[in-house]
Amino acid sequence: xxxxxxxxxxxxxxxxxxxxxxxxxxxxxxxxxxxxxxxxxxxxxxxxxxxxxxxxxxxxxxxxxxxxxxxxxxxxxxxxxxxxxxxxxxxxxxxxxxxxxxxxxxxxxxxxxxxxxx
Length: 118
Hints:
Layout: H1 15-23, E1 26-29, E2 33-39, E3 46-50, H2 59-76, E4 83-89, H3 98-117
Parallel strand pairs: 3-4
Antiparallel strand pairs: 1-2, 2-4
Helix pairs in contact: 2-3
């Protein structure tokens, strides 16, 4: 059985980690969010989140968005390639229901998985 935790090793923690992803990344986007991906040297994917106040105004809104993205990543982590992912929220992301956001994330995870596998 696969372990479905979201431990510290599955997160991008330092500004250098984020900088690497922003420099050369595959991009999958929608009007609501963008996911950047770049291969890493580890044997597992890692997740970073960028949710600007300018895009989602309230702290509960930003926290809700991050919680949903982390949960989607946690459930999909074993299907994802060994990439560093950064999810960037756009203004309209706060208007999506949980179900719509999960479906959108699934679609984008799948698209990035195909891109990185060739």
